[in-house]
Amino acid sequence: MFLLLAIVTLVSCNQEKKEEPIVDNLLLKEWTGPYGGVPAFDQIKIEDVKAAMLQGMELNLKDIDAIANNTDAPTFENTIEEMERSGEELNRAFNYYGILSSNMSTPEFRAIQTELAPLFSEFQSKITQNEKLFKRVKAVYEASLKNPLEAEQQRVVALIYNEFAMNGAELDDEKKATYAKINKELSSLYTKFSNNVLHDEENYVTYLTKEQLGGLSEGFIKSAAKIAADKGQEGKYAITNTRSSMDPFLTYSTERELRKKVWTNYYSRGDNGDEYDNNKLIAEILKLRRQRVELLGYKNYAEWRLQDRMAKTPENAMELMEAVWPAAIGRVAEEVADMQAIADKNGDKITIEPWDYRFYAEKVRKAKYDLDSDEVKQYLQLDKLTDAMHYVAGRLFNYKFTPVPEGSVPVFHEDVKIWEVTDKDSGENIGLWYLDPYARPGKRSGAWATTYRSHTTFDGKKNVLASNNSNFVKPAPGEPILVSWDDATTFFHEFGHALHFFSSIVKYPTSNGGVRDYTEFQSQLLERWLSTDEVINNYLIHNKTGEPMPVELVTKIKNAATFNQGFATTEYLASAIMDMKFHLADPENIDVDKFERGTLAELKMPKELPMRHRTPHFGHVFSGEGYATAYYGYMWADVLTSDASEAFAEAPGGFYDEEVAGKLVKHLFAPRNSVDPAEAYRAFRGRDAKIEALMRDRGFPVTTNE
Known about the structure:
Glutathione S-transferase Yfyf (Class Pi), Chain A, domain 2
C-alpha cells in the first residue's frame, strides 16, 4: 500500500511482474511459518530499525516509479492495483516499528524515531506529489466517472484520488515544496510531543508508605507493592502516572492530599514548564496545520479534514456536541450536589474538587443504588472476560477462538497470548488474535487495536493478524486480574475493532481503511454485549467462590446504568469541543494554556472535573493527525451505536437475534470502507440514526421531536 504511514496495518501482495529485491534485514523479509506467515517479533533488534526503514522506503519508491513511468495507457489494473501491491517490504517493517513505538519503546528507539520522522514525511511527499503518478490516478478516476467500475473498485479509485487531491497533488511546484516542508516539520513535532508525554508518564511516580493505603483493595496494594519493588523501592507502594493506576486510586483512597498529588501528576502530563512541556509545540502544530490547508484554499484545518468524514463540516460536528453539552453539564451539577451532600453529612468539611469526584461518586453510587464498584470488580476477571468476548464473537460472527500453543508463534513480550480464529462450521482459518494486556515501561497508555495483516483477496486471500493492547496493572503472582466495569467495557470496545478487522470481505487494501467518525461505531456497539444476560450469567464469576454474579447485583448494575453520565459525557465532550475550537481559532500567536482556560470558561465547564485529555497530553490530536478535529467522532459514532442498540433491543431474540446479527455483520462490519458509511447504516436500519436514542441511553432529557 502506498500511503497510510501513520497507521500501517496492511501487508501487500507479491506482483508477478516485479523482481523480488534482495533484502537481508529481518524487518523487511517476507514472513514465514504457520497461518500464512507471521512476524518474527521475537527477533526484533533496535540496530536493524533505521536501515530497514531506509531500504524499505527506497524499495517502495522504486515500485511507485515503475507505476508512474508505465508507458501503457492508465487503467485500474496497471495503476490502482499496482499501487495496492506496492511497498510490501516497507509495510512489513512498519509492523515491527509500530510494536517498538507503542508497546516496547526505549530511549534508544525514541532517538531513532526522532531521526526517522522527517524522513517518513519526505518519503510520503515523494508519492503524493509525484506528478506522473497523479496524472495516471486522475485519468483512471475521470474515466470511472464516465464508465463506472465495479462498486468496490469505484470506491477505491475515489478514495485514492481524494487522498492525493487533499494532500496537494494539484498544487504548483512552489506550493508543493512548501506543503512538503510543512509536513516534514509537523512529523518531527508529533514525535517530540508523544515522547514528552511518555517521559512524564514514566517519571512521575507516587510512592506510598504502609500508613497511606487506606481504602485501597488488597489486590491493588499487592500490585502497587510489586511495581515499587521492581523500581527499586522495596517496602513501598507505587502509583504510576497512567489511567489504569490513577483511576482506582482516586476512586478508593482515603488520603485526600495524596489523591490531589496523583490527580495533579496525571493531568499535568506535558504541562510542567520544563523541557518536556508541550504547550509551545502545540502552538506550532496548530500554526503549521493552518498554513498547510490554506495552500489548498481552505479556511481552517477542520474544514479540510472533515470533508471526507460522515459529519462533512465542522459546523455539523459542533451542532451535535452543542446539542448534548447542556444536558451533560446539567447532570454534573446534580452529581456534584449529591456528592457534596454526602461529604457534608460525613462532616468532611470540604468542597468537592476534581480529585474528590471519583471518590465521592463512589459513595453516591453506594448510597443511591447500594452498588459497590469493588464488589462488582470481584466478578470481572480478565480471563473470564476474554472468554466472554470469544463467546459473543461465536454467537454473532460464528467465530471460534482456540489458544495457540506457547512458542509456536513468535511474540514480542512474554505477556502476549495468541488465539487462532476459525469459522465454527467450516473450520476455515480467519486469522490470529494477539492479546497484550499489561502496562509496562515503554508502552503507551490507554488501549488500542491494530492489524499486522489485513484481509484482501485481489492477489489471493490473506488471513488477518489482529492485536488488542491494554494497560491493566499486572497483578502480583498468583493473584487474579480484576478490572473495573469501565475497564471491562473498554476491553469489549477494543475487541470490537478486532472483530471489524476479522470480518472484512473486501478485495483491496484501501477498502480496509476507515472513516474516522464511523470506525468507532462498531467497537462502541460491541460494548453493549458486556451487559447481556448471557455474558453476565456465564462469565462474570466471583474470583474466590466461583459463583455467578447474583441477580440482586445485576439488578443494581442495570439500575445504575446512567449513573455518573454527567462526568463521563462532560469530560469527553470538553476534550472533543476543545479539539475543534483549537482548529477553528486563529493560530497566530496563540497562547495554548490561555486558550484552553478561556474556552472552558466560555463553555461553563464545571470546575469539579477536568477534560478527559487536557491539551498538553492530548495524543489523539497532537501526536499525529488520526483524530485531529475528529475526537468528536466517538460521539458521532455513539449516535449510531445507541440507535443500532435499540434495533437489537426491539428484536425477538434481543442482542443475539440471528436476523439482526446477520444484518449487522453483512452491512456494518464486513464491508469495511468499501461502502459509504451512511449508505451502510441505512441498509442495516432502514433509515438514518436518531440523536434521541443517544439521549435516552445517557439518561438525558429528550427535547426534540421524533
